[in-house]
Amino acid sequence: MIDRNDPVQSALPSESFPRSRAHRSTPLEALPAHDEFSTSTRVLETTSIAAALVLLILLIVRCLPLIMSHPASLLVWILGVVAADFGSGMIHWFADTWGHETMPVLGRRLLRPFRVHHLNPGDFLRRDFIDCNGDVALLQIPILALTLFLMDRVSWGGTLGTFCMGLCGVGMFTNQFHQWAHQRSPAPIIRWLQRRGVVLSRAQHRLHHRQPHQQAYCITTGWCNTPLEKIGFFSGLERLITRWTGRQPRADYFEFISRHQEKGSGNHFG
C-alpha cells in the first residue's frame, strides 16, 4: 500500500506507482527528471552493451560445458546471482544515503538519478533499453574481460567463470528488472518471472517507495532484501559509518528532496 500522507509517494505518476487522488492533477513537468544524454554518451552506452553482450556470450560458451559436466557448479552460478542482487543493494543504498549530487562523476551519473527516482519514478519508464542498461554494461566489461583472461590461467578458473556468469549475466540487466518492476503490465513472460521471484517484482519494489525509502534496496532479483532487513544490515552499517566519520546518513538526500519540494510548492505536492 502507498502511504497517502507521504508527499514523495503522493507524487508518483500512475504509470509507475499510483498517486493519491489529491495529486492526480499535478503537472509532471514540475517534478525533477533524469538528464538527457549527449550523442557521444549514447554511442558509448550502445557500444558498451554490445561489447558486454559479446563477452557474456563467450563466457557462457566457456562455462556451459563445465556446468553440464558438474551440475553441482550450478550452485556457484546461483551464488553469482545472489552477489549481483547484493551488489545492486549496496550501490542503491550508497546512492540514497551518502554523498551529494555535485560529487565528481558519481554525483550526476549515480546519486542524482536515484534521488530523482524517488520524486518522479515514472520518469524512469521513458528511458529506452540503451539508456536504461548502458552504464551497467560499461561496468561489466572489465569484469567479464578479466574473468575470460583468468579462466585458463588459474586452477579455479572454472569456478570463477561460473560465478561471473551469474554475477554479470543477471546483474547486467539490473536496471531493466528495476524498470519492469515499475510497469503495470510488462510482457507476460516478465510477469511470470516476477510472480515466481526470479526477478524483482512490482510488489516487492513497492516496499522501497514507502517513506522513508530505507528498505528493499536490492533491485536485481530482490532475493537479498528479506534477510538483510531481518539482520538490520544497512541500518547497522549506517551507525558504524556515523560512529567512524561523524557524518549523518541521508543529510544531502533530504536536502535534495526538500529543495525540489520547495520548487514545486503549490504544484505537485498540493
Q: Can you describe what's shown?
A:
By secondary structure, this protein is an all-alpha fold. The chain is built from eleven helices and no strands. The chain has helices at residues 39-69, 74-97, 106-119, 129-150, 157-171, 174-182, 188-195, 202-206, 225-230, 233-245, 251-263. Helix 4 runs antiparallel to helix 6. The longest helix has 31 residues, at 39-69. The two termini are 21 Å apart.
Q: Would you identify the regions where 5 or more consecutive residues have pLDDT less than 50? A: 1-15, 18-27, 264-270
Q: Structural class, from secondary structure content?
A: mainly alpha
| Oligomer category | single chain
Globally, the shape reads globular
Helix fraction? 55-70%
DSSP strand content = under 5%
Largest beta-sheet details: none
Provide the succession of SSEs.
HHHHHHHHHHH
Terminal Cα separation, in Å? Answer: 21 Å
Q: Any idea what the radius of gyration is?
A: 20 Å
- How many helices? 11
Mean pLDDT value: 86
Number of strands: 0
Helices and strands in order, then pairings?
Elements: H1 39-69, H2 74-97, H3 106-119, H4 129-150, H5 157-171, H6 174-182, H7 188-195, H8 202-206, H9 225-230, H10 233-245, H11 251-263
Helix pairs in contact: 1-4, 1-5, 2-3, 2-5, 4-5, 4-6
